[in-house]
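User: We ran a pulldown and think these components assemble together. Before we commit to crystallization trials, I'd like a predicted model of the whole complex to look at. Sequences follow.
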Amino acid sequence: MCDEKDDLNKKLTEKHLELEEKMENLEESLKIWTDAITELSEIEDAFKTSEKPEMRARRFWMLERILLNRFILRLNITQAKS
Amino acid sequence: MCFSQFELELESRSKFLTDTSIRLYTCSLFDDVALNRIREKEGISGKFNFVLVSKTLHHLRTDECVEEHECQEDEECCKYGLNEEYVFAKLLSLGERVIIYEPIKTDGDLDKTRGRGGNFTKKELLQVFKYLSENEKYKVRFIRPQIFDLDKTTLYRVESMLRQVDILCFYVEKNSNKS
Ligand SMILES: [Zn+2]
Ligand SMILES: [Zn+2]
Ligand SMILES: [Zn+2]
Ligand SMILES: [Zn+2]
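Assistant: Here's a predicted model for the assembly, 261 residues in total across the polymer chains.
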């Protein structure tokens, strides 16, 4: 009986560590993301096209550290009509 | 913080963008099967208008060391190459315009993993621009630090530009005039 309990404890501890690591990764990604979004204003000109603003693209992918974290971020944008 | 909270926080912090919705996926750019599954799930057909590669181009390296040395177990000093043709073809298959925002190597790269990662040196970047300018299938425009179109006649401007800045922004599109 006691062994079963130990086993369970061990499993829970492992799970806890696993989740904690996952959360750390997510927090790190969040930071990268918000940094990148802040920087978007610096590269606004890259999004300029000859099309009318309302025809302008609404969606883009943002790729971040893909090979490292195997992470792909997708951002759906709807531009406000001006 | 559960995953959906994480997404919510991202959305609320994306102040620069209006009416934004964000999905996060774990997938390699080069895993077509997984990528297609995501596209299907999100109902994405066709290309995106923009693909922004933010400080990430140097993570799209190959997995072969290009240094002339005997590779160590930890690959600490290793440097993988970049297959420009393959990477830009892949990115242009996802979006009409591929925007690259990329730092230039100064003191290294915190997320260097083995030979992968590691910010590009000026020499490596020059190679990328040489490749892009020599291929008429691309239309390339620099945004930062200066706005100008890259081609064979403007390539000479790149070297001095690389010396002056630590971050670059340019975009690549398929050239519709030539094939
Ligand atoms: Zn026991
Ligand atoms: Zn804890
Ligand atoms: Zn090596
Ligand atoms: Zn990096």
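Residues 49-82 of chain A form one domain. That may be worth checking against your pulldown data before setting up trials.

User: Thanks, that helps.
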